[in-house]
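Data availability (excerpt). The following record was deposited with the supplementary files.
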Amino acid sequence: MVNFSFSKEIKNPELPLTHEQKNIIREYCSLASLSSLSESEAQRIADILEIAQIDQILDFWMTEADYVIGHNLNLIHENEQKNFQARLREYLVTDCGGLKQITFRHTK
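Predicted structure:
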């Protein structure tokens, strides 16, 4: 099972979470960290993703969870992530016509 080091952030987040949102995020984390999903588990993830489309706070925390899960499962490599962020910055600066600075929450 994946150790979710960000769980303390969920307890006292800057973005307030309802009890229901916390439970949904925990369930999503458990399902997302499984090596394979049953049909009902896959359907539940689809249901959760639908809910997140209309709940911005839930969507934010699920994105954070995906990042943590990716690192814990060695799916995200720091150098690749930094290269991607650099390319994204270049694209956004070019596309936005001189945007001065773009920061990413997860850069070190």
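Summary of structural features: The chain is about 65% helix and 0% strand.
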